[in-house]
Write a structure and sequence with these properties.
With 219 residues, the protein is an alpha/beta fold. The longest helix is centred in the C-terminal third of the chain and has 18 residues. Helices cover 35% and strands 27% of the residues. The strands form 2 sheets. A 6-stranded mixed beta sheet has the order 6-7-8-3-9-10. A 4-stranded antiparallel beta sheet has the order 2-1-4-5, covered by helices on one side. The radius of gyration is 17 Å and the shape is globular. The protein binds adenosine-5'-triphosphate and magnesium ion (MG).
Length: 219
């Protein structure tokens, strides 16, 4: 089975707090994995380490056949933008930009033409069923629509992995189910793998695999 990401012996300490304490994790291509555990168990920190948003105190992260440990921050930021998608509980859209501009945002700055950027962003909005909302600003979209825009943005560079931190946490349960169904469709149609940090039993029940954390460790 092809691994999309592999982490070995990951440790992250903040002063005297060890948020992630020797974690091994592998995600297969096209697999949907739920990461669960009580508040403070280290889920977000683990996700940030996998995304290269934070440097591990020790341990290694490999994405497909690329070793991420030891890359400097600029290289890592560029790598992240081109290879993985990130989705957050609170959407993190830019309020002054339209849905389409939010989706295209990770393509700036780059030498991709405006026409190509627009075309790509439109196709991603179509993938999440929001082609008809392209000109709307986030404030004119429902929570579920805003999250779908954020997912379209995460898809802009055709990632093989999307890391999502409580993506249904701000949504009612019906809307949460729609987001989850969208993840499954993207897996089936585009082969995207997902690591979904969640407190939501519905997410866990439909995942291919559930990983549970306690005190920074996988249990
Ligand atoms: N930047 C930081 N500085 C200091 N301590 C931190 C920092 N980030 C996280 N921690 C600590 O690390 C531990 C794990 O935090 P983390 O945010 O990873 O938990 P979580 O499982 O995502 O919790 P929740 O379900 O509430 O989101 C907590 O004890 C937290 O206080
Ligand atoms: Mg968290």
């Amino acid at each position: 089975m092809n691994k999309v990401i592999t982490a070995k012996s990951l440790v992250k300490s903040f002063g005297t707090v060890t948020a992630v304490d020797g974690m091994d994790i592998e995600i297969n291509a096209g697999e949907i994995v739920a990461l669960m555990g009580r508040s403070g168990s280290g889920k977000t920190t683990a996700m940030h380490l996998l995304a290269g948003l934070e440097q591990a105190t020790s341990g290694k992260v490999r994405y497909q056949d690329k070793e991420l440990s030891g890359l400097d921050e600029d290289t890592l930021a560029l790598w992240r933008r081109e290879n993985i998608g990130l989705v957050f509980q609170s959407f993190h859209l830019i309020p002054t930009l339209s849905a389409l501009e939010n989706v295209a945002f990770p393509l700036y700055p780059s030498d991709i033409s405006v026409t190509e950027r627009t075309k790509r962003a439109e196709s991603r909005l179509e993938m999440v069923g929001l082609a008809d909302r392209a000109t709307h600003r986030p404030s004119r979209l429902s929570g579920g629509e805003q999250q779908r825009v954020a997912i379209a943005r995460a898809l802009i560079n055709d990632p093989d992995l999307i890391l999502a931190d409580e993506p249904t946490g701000n949504l009612d349960s019906e809307t949460g189910k729609e987001i989850l169904a969208l993840f499954h469709r993207l897996r089936d149609e585009a082969g995207v793998a997902f690591l979904i940090v969640t407190h939501d039993d519905e997410v866990a029940e439909t995942a291919d695999r559930v990983i549970r954390m306690k005190d920074g460790k996988i249990i």
